[in-house]
Amino acid sequence: MIRVLVVDDSALMRQLLSEILDTAPDIEVVGTAQDPYVARERIKELNPDVLTLDVEMPRMDGLTFLRNLMRLRPMPVVMVSSLTAQGAEVTLQALELGAVDFVRKPDGPIAAGMRDYADELIEKVRIAATIKPRPLVIAPVTNHEVLPKPASFRTTDRVLAIGASTGGTEAIKEVLLRLPPDTPGVVIAQHIPAGFSAAFAERMNRQTGLVVKEAADGDRVMLGHAYIAPGDYHLQLARDGARYICRLDRGEPVNRHRPSVDVLFRSVARVAGTNAAAALLTGMGADGAQGLKELYDLGVHTIAQDEATSVVWGMPGEAVKRGGATEVLPLNNIASALLKGLTAKHKP
């Protein structure tokens, strides 16, 4: 049984989360807490396997509590986040501090809306229970963090493609941090809900040396720019004459996801071919594995993140299993390998 402690200042949310999780035969809610101070004592008393944690709470905010928890007693945490600009930013900070994943609080009536998220909540708690939290060791970055944003608006005849899911927001950041400002355009599919992708792009724009934005339909893909698929939209690479552009659509989910990494990678294969390099990062499931294999079969240099540095080695592991990875690398080596891969082709 997966033993869960639910932490939320709302009595209704504690009840709803507990009821949802208790419907799963392999999950037991062993306790609840209305604030971090009570949660601290319940953790000592109950020794849960997974914590669900509200972002905004009285007496001590969720981020402060999470920071202390991951420093003193690391454990898997799933954040429960409000769909607001502030809620999205705090959630991304929580992932940076070591939270495994997050679920959104519903927009409409709480009881009805939260039950719609039951399957997602249960799945993410199950995933969290398989993870042993550990400090993410990343080599110091000194080369690119202080470099200016690119001043030119040249388009690119080469392109980098990146896909990720669980653990991906931080993994993508570590790759982008290591890319110089004159990097060919980067297109990114991260499994992230609508309302959070814009905050994620803004955060990456502030923290990296690239111009990072949420992709808009028709955006030109330019040097030194990265384009993140909006939540609930597929991102595809297309051509407008000699230029690469972004195309968005709300077609059916692929592998249960929209945006889907497979959709992005297959468009890169069609449009850019061997003028691309691609990386599949941490994530649950298999989305992107077949797309990476199709790129590999064209002769594109493809990279899968290794198991040791992945939060979940589902998507990259499946790509390796299917023979779709030219290289399997730790996270801090992927950026340089992507750049080298633009000229280092292999025979399919």
UniProtKB/TrEMBL annotation:
Keywords recorded for this protein, A-Z: Chemotaxis, Cytoplasm, Hydrolase, Phosphoprotein
Boundaries of every Response regulatory domain copy: 3-120
Alphabetical list of SUPFAM superfamilies matching this protein: CheY-like, Methylesterase CheB, C-terminal domain
Sites of 4-aspartylphosphate modification: 54
InterPro entries, per the entry: CheB-like, CheB_C, CheY-like_superfamily, Sig_transdc_resp-reg_Me-estase, Sig_transdc_resp-reg_receiver
One cellular component term from this protein's GO annotations in UniProt: cytoplasm
GO molecular function: phosphorelay response regulator activity; protein-glutamate methylesterase activity; protein-glutamine glutaminase activity
Job of this protein: Involved in chemotaxis. Part of a chemotaxis signal transduction system that modulates chemotaxis in response to various stimuli. Catalyzes the demethylation of specific methylglutamate residues introduced into the chemoreceptors (methyl-accepting chemotaxis proteins or MCP) by CheR. Also mediates the irreversible deamidation of specific glutamine residues to glutamic acid.
Entry's free-text remark on domains: Contains a C-terminal catalytic domain, and an N-terminal region which modulates catalytic activity.
Protein name: Protein-glutamate methylesterase/protein-glutamine glutaminase
Organism this protein belongs to: Allochromatium warmingii
